[in-house]
Amino acid sequence: MLAASFAPGRTALPAATRFTREVMTAWAAASMSAEAESLTGALVSEVGDVPFEIVWVHQGDALQIEIRERETGDVTVSPPASPVTVWGVSFSGELRTRWARIGLPGGGGGGGRVVDDWTGQKASQGPGWLGFLADASDLLAGTLDPDMVPALIAQIVVPRLATWCAVYTVPSDAGPLSLAYLWHADESKIDQLRERLAEAAVPSVDSLTPVPIQLADWQSLAFPLVARGRSLGMMCLGRSGRFPDDVAQLAEDLGRRAALAMDNARLYAQQADANRALQRSLLPPGTPAETPGLDYSVVYEPAGETNEVGGDFYDLFATGESSWRFAIGDVCGTGPQAAAVTGLARHTLRLLAREGYDVAAVVSRLNQAILEEGERARFLTLLHGEITRTDDGLDLALISAGHPEALRLRPSGVVEAVVTSQSLLGVFPEAEFVADHVHLAPGDVLLGVTDGVTERRSGERLLDDDGGLSKLLAECAELSARAVAERIRRAVQDFAMAPSADDLAILVLRAD
């Protein structure tokens, strides 16, 4: 059984599909991957806006998927939109489980997987073992999830090289060995084996060669998992008879490849964690809790499909009892260089606003600050403005520095561009900026977005072709700021099936 939990939202389906693909890889059932992914998509698409868990169960001659979620009262009774052997819905307290089963090719209910057993073959008898190592390397390289690598190792080894496999890992803080994954050819014996291993003496990770393990009824060997000079854990194999020398050599080679895959996954995860922390640090510490006369909403979504920090940013902060500053911008590129410019821009905007500079002076000084970064400089598009509450709405002083045009929506449904595009930042030292003045009467809405919205692509078409964004906004008359932002976000998501490769930021200001 393999399980994973998922948060609701637009990333749920891609993440669930990747998990299913990894499960099929771990179970050496790549031929079933397309069918399993289709079934996953059909079931996940019916999940409500709640967290859910996916559980895959290997039943010998069939694979069963279970989607577990909190009961919401909306019970699906129709079969999945994908061919299955049997399906159903069950309940346990507040938990609802929708499940479906697909048969394995040639499955006859024998209770075991049809696999190749290499334990009775010698490496010198043919090139088959080279193909096995090549396939194993591809499987191990196919995941960058450090929690999945131990499961892959065990599933690859059993029963090809051994009857059971236990993978022990060393935490990143160099703590003691811990059992990360245990697999037995007979799943009913896993718990008993776990108890025996808990009493056995697992060799130290300092060992660089295979070491026998004293375990009753089993011939057991522990293979060190070492990569780039670091000890990452142990791979322990067991079988009823003696390990042939060729099989031991094959397992030792596999251990080296597994250790390298585990180290790559850990390094990737560490970099991803660092990038997420950096991304969070680039977001504003908070937005004003009370904004009398101003209704606002912000949507920010990093692309999330790569291990890179994005360049989109936003900010909204108070400068007085009835005045605020806002910004939405996009730094060229991604990664640390873009992040440096993002941090520079957001902090400069806040600092200069508190020093009393008007929006034109702030943008001009930010342009100079970016240019002073020299070779590290990245050009930046920015929509920056000051909001002042008046008796009849909101007065805005705006500057659009090469940014997608800001749009104003009237309660009547009329949409119009309200700012003049000026020079983007970080390119021309002689650039001068002049603020445009816009008034938002009660019910008027101002929309600012980054190019992750306007340049969302479906085939050869962009979302903003033929005034697409204006048409979307026109449908939002008399909606709250939050409802407007959410409708634009959903429209961007629905415009194309593929996940977006660009960050997305949406800022909506509405005069109450």
UniProtKB/TrEMBL annotation:
<dbReference type="Pfam" id="PF07228">
    <property type="entry name" value="SpoIIE"/>
</dbReference>
<dbReference type="InterPro" id="IPR001932">
    <property type="entry name" value="PPM-type_phosphatase-like_dom"/>
</dbReference>
<dbReference type="InterPro" id="IPR036457">
    <property type="entry name" value="PPM-type-like_dom_sf"/>
</dbReference>
<dbReference type="InterPro" id="IPR029016">
    <property type="entry name" value="GAF-like_dom_sf"/>
</dbReference>
<feature type="domain" description="PPM-type phosphatase">
    <location>
        <begin position="294"/>
        <end position="511"/>
    </location>
</feature>
<keyword id="KW-0378">Hydrolase</keyword>
<protein>
    <recommendedName>
        <fullName>PPM-type phosphatase domain-containing protein</fullName>
    </recommendedName>
</protein>
<dbReference type="InterPro" id="IPR052016">
    <property type="entry name" value="Bact_Sigma-Reg"/>
</dbReference>
